[in-house]
Amino acid sequence: TWWLGDVAGALVVAPVLVLWGLDRTVRLTRGQVLELLLLLGSVLLVGEVVFGGLGSPWAWNYPLEFLCIPPLVVAAFRFGPREAATCVALLSVLANWGTLHGLGPFVRYTPNESLLLLQTFMGTMAMMTLLLAANVKAHARTEAALARVAAIVESSDDAIIGKTLDGIITTWNAGAERLYGYAAREVVGRPISIVIPPQVGDELPEILDRLARGERVEHYETVRVARDGRRIEVSITVSPTLDPAGRVIGASSIARDITHRKEAEAAVRERDALRYVASLAAAAAHEINNPLAVVVGQAELLDETLDATGQKRTEEILQATRRIEEIVGRMKGVSRLKVTGEAPYIPEMLDLDKSSEPGAGSPPSPARQGA
Questions:
Q1: Which of 10, 75, 240, 371 is the most exposed place for a label (fewest CB within 10 A)?
Q2: At the fourth CATH level, which superfamily is domain 158-257?
């Protein structure tokens, strides 16, 4: 009886002292306070009925001790370990008082036998109630954590999609709705291939095979297609989804729109290329100008030694060199280049679309680059 009483005391009294010692604040709304008072009142009522002799004598022949279970379960589910332990302690006080006064279902011929049965019962009730309250609290914490994660996923600007290993969409957040144009109710249950263009359709089986092996696909850039047919440059990270046993049961992908970044990168490459062309034009003009000056000087000296016919030809040479000097002067003044949709007239010998083809007079390409 002594050691069983010590065990029951540790299960009934110690949790109350420890839990109230760790957190003495009461964070309850007015409705919860009223509910707690009703719960304590029901514990008192049950204690009086079971262990205090309240009620008709004919009911004492029935197993009334089972009436102790419902209020303790309610306390575990509605309020948590601290309040549940308090209810167990209150019920234990009533049970001990009634049993010592010869009342209740555990009264036997000797006080020791009566207390032995009572402490066994109260220890069982305490263990059941505290374990149940602890599980309920852990479940509530897990649900709160999942709710926070779900809120983060739903508010993310990135498209976060869950799918099975067969490529069937299971979750679709608001970011995916904005990126691809499909509402969640339209795509959940459909294959992920609805946003994959046919040109890159062969990448999906490879990704799913890697996920089935538990591998993670990091930041690969590809193309997706929106509901309206737009092609979207995206950077995608795909991770396997595991069950509690560690088995791969699906995948989650995070897609970020990088269309603007790609356009900016293309603009930077284009700017660097045009800048190089501009510097090349200026250097070429400088290199052409030196021998051209020699040609002009020699033509002028030669003009003084020729007759009228020869002078006419040297004049034509000088006119051509002056035209070259004008072109070289404009080349030296080039500081920047830009792309235009339609270039102005380009001589056929300088038109790359024409000069690079075997046949002359072939039609030019729709877009040209002009300076």
A1: 10
A2: PAS domain (3.30.450.20)
